[in-house]
Amino acid sequence: MDFEKKYPITQQPGDFVTIQWTRGYKAVDLYYKNELIGSVQGAGKLKAGTTITDTVLGTIGLKLSEKPVMLNVIIDGYHSPVNVSHPVKELKKIATLFWLLAVFSFIAGAFEIGVFSGTGALQGMIILINGLILITYFISAVFVGRGKTWAYYLGFSVFTFFTLMTLLVLLSGFMWGYLLYIFQAFRIAALGVLIFNLKTANAARKHQRYGSFNDTQLLDTTL
């Protein structure tokens, strides 16, 4: 074997498994407490994802990520904290979506304020509501970028509520216009993306029940 790396076990703080592998991941050995508990031959199996069953640790999943090509270890349904595909790390990437929603909210809000210009108190209410929405997306973007699941749920809930509200308004005929329909189509598409990524937020929340692992700089060592 050419390389070795320790993978901490999320649900067993202070415990870890050790992976040894050859260049190109052609052969991989998995050790727990200095005992070999499984081997995998062929990088193809690791790209597709494979499992090893152990009487103590349960089911151990091994899968290569694509960019970068790194081995991820999932023990009994929990990612090792050093996995590049760890749910919390994946959640942080979604922050970009909330930054885009913030920009969209600013543009749509400016349009709505223009539509209701000269309506006095109604325009003031529109400004207040859009301001609060913009602040919400900003908060979600910042804290999702820090891996906070509550921020994802906050942004998701607010966006879902106002998407449904605007849909009801359009269906009622109270407001209409091609630009409004385009905005609503964008909202529905964005809502689909948010729903799809709920699984990442839920997985991150599941892992965070065991706290965070600070020492993520466990480098591969050459044997």
The fraction of residues in strands falls at 15-25%
Mean pLDDT: 87
Structural class: alpha+beta
The biggest sheet, with number of strands, parallel, antiparallel or mixed sense and barrel status, is: 5 strands, antiparallel
Strand order of the largest sheet: 4-3-2-1-9
Helix content: 40-55%
SSE sequence, one letter per element: EEEEHEEEEHHHHHHE
Number of strands: 9
Compute the CA-based radius of gyration.
23 Å
Number of domains: 2
Q: Count every helix, treating DSSP H or I runs of 4 or more residues as helices.
A: 7
Gap between N and C termini: 7 Å
Give start-end ranges of low-pLDDT stretches.
none
Overall form: elongated
Descriptive account of the structure:
A five-stranded antiparallel beta sheet has the order 4-3-2-1-9. It has a four-stranded antiparallel beta sheet with strand order 5-6-7-8. The longest helix is centred in the middle third of the chain and has 24 residues, at 121-144. It has two domains: 3-82; 95-196, no CATH class. The chain is α+β, with helices and mostly antiparallel strands. Helix content is 50%, strand content 21%. Helix 4 runs antiparallel to helix 5 (149-172).
Observed structural traits:
four-stranded antiparallel sheet, elongated, single chain, alpha+beta, five-stranded antiparallel sheet, 223 residues, 50% helix, 2 domains
